[in-house]
From TrEMBL:
Its EC number is 5.99.-.-. InterPro entries: Calycin, Nb(III)_bact/plant, Nitrobindin, THAP4-like_heme-bd. Keywords: Heme, Iron, Isomerase, Metal-binding. This is Peroxynitrite isomerase.
Length: 164
C-alpha cells in the first residue's frame, strides 16, 4: 500500500515516519513461564505535527486456524522523537505496568531498550525489555525480548504486520 508523509511531519519524526498508519497481522509468542502461542495484532501510529507519535496496540490469541480465541495484550503510549534519530518511548499496559524506553531510529528501523519499569501490586514482574521494529519489504516486522518472572532477557514475541 502506498504511503505518503504528512505535510505537518515534525522534522525529528522523520526517522520513524515509515511507522505511521495502521498495521495488522499475526505473530508468535513463547517464554519459559508460558506455553507457546499465536496471536493477531493491530498497531496504530498517529502524528499531529508535534515531535512524537501516538501508539496504540491491541492483540488477541488465535487458534491454529487463525480464529480469535480471546483478547490479549493492550498497550498505549508515545514515541518521543529527539534530534539525530534518538527516541524515547513511554508505554502503559493494561496488565498493570508502565515502561520508559530509550533508543535510536534510522534506516527504516527503531531499536529501544527499557530504562525504567513500574508496576501495580497485581501485575506480573517485568524487569527489562528490548524491542526492534523494522520496515522490510513493505511490512512492519518486530521482535520483543523480555526479562520477567525471574527469567533473563530472551525472545518473547515476534510478528509481521501489513499496512492497512
Amino acid at each position: 500500500m502506498p504511503f505518503e508523509l504528512p505535510d505537518n511531519l515534525h522534522p525529528d519524526c522523520a526517522p520513524v515516519a515509515w511507522m505511521l498508519g495502521t498495521w495488522a497481522g499475526n505473530g508468535h509468542g513463547d517464554y519459559p513461564t508460558i506455553d507457546a502461542f499465536e496471536f493477531g495484532q493491530e498497531l496504530i501510529f498517529t502524528h499531529d505535527g508535534r515531535p512524537f507519535l501516538h501508539y496504540l496496540a491491541r492483540s488477541w490469541i488465535v487458534d491454529g486456524d487463525g480464529t480469535k480465541v480471546r483478547d490479549a495484550a493492550l498497550e498505549s503510549g508515545f514515541v518521543r522523537c529527539r534530534p539525530e534519530g534518538r527516541v524515547e518511548m513511554l508505554l502503559s499496559h493494561s496488565s498493570g505496568f508502565a515502561e520508559v524506553w530509550y533508543g535510536s531510529a534510522g534506516d527504516a528501523r527503531m531499536e529501544i531498550a527499557t530504562d525504567a519499569i513500574a508496576r501495580t501490586e497485581s501485575a506480573k514482574e517485568v524487569t527489562g525489555g528490548k524491542r526492534l521494529y523494522g520496515y522490510v519489504e513493505g511490512d512492519l516486522l518486530y521482535a520483543y525480548d523480555m526479562a520477567a518472572m525471574g527469567q533473563p532477557l530472551q525472545p518473547h514475541l515476534w510478528a509481521r504486520l501489513q499496512r492497512r
